[in-house]
Amino acid sequence: MINVKIITPKGLYFTGEAAQVNARSVEGEFGLLSNHMPMVAMLAISKLELVKENERNRYAIAGGMLYFQNNELRILTDSIESEDEIDLERAKKAKERAERRLASQESDMNMKRAEIALQKAINRIHIKENMPM
Asked: What number of other Cβ atoms are within 10 A of residue 104's Cβ?
């Protein structure tokens, strides 16, 4: 088993065990099983999946850093929501706001923030509606 800790700026979000962890780094998707070689990865805005026995827990993660060694997994992220925590209507409204900001073509800084907000909203919608990424 893998000992998992997920930490956000608000504190410890999750601690527990998983038999398998599926995630996506900025370089691509990967899965971790017990005794995997040590790794450090920058996580993309994506789905994080923790698998234990026949249970799959899905999370919308807003990027971050993953560190794995000796069956200890640490994830640092600015934001994470479980599938149950995602408010679908709120995510859809956030998506619409980001699309409006992108259409207005404001400054480069506002465009980058709008692109990130759009990615996060789409990620949450996909996870809540169980859509492929």
From this structure: 10
Reported as a single tens digit per residue, the pLDDT across 60-81 is: 999 999 999 999 999 999 999 9
Angle at 23 between CA 21 and CA 25, to 5 degrees: 140
Nearest Cα residue to 66 out of 98, 39, 86: 39
Cα–Cα distance, 82 to 61 (Å, whole number): 9
Threshold 0.85, pTM exceeds: no
Q: What is the DSSP letter of 38?
A: P
Which amino acid is located at 78 in the chain? Answer: D
Residue whose entry in the numeric block shows the structure tokens 């992108």: 102
Residue 99: its H or E element: helix 88-104
**DSSP assignment, residue 124?**
H
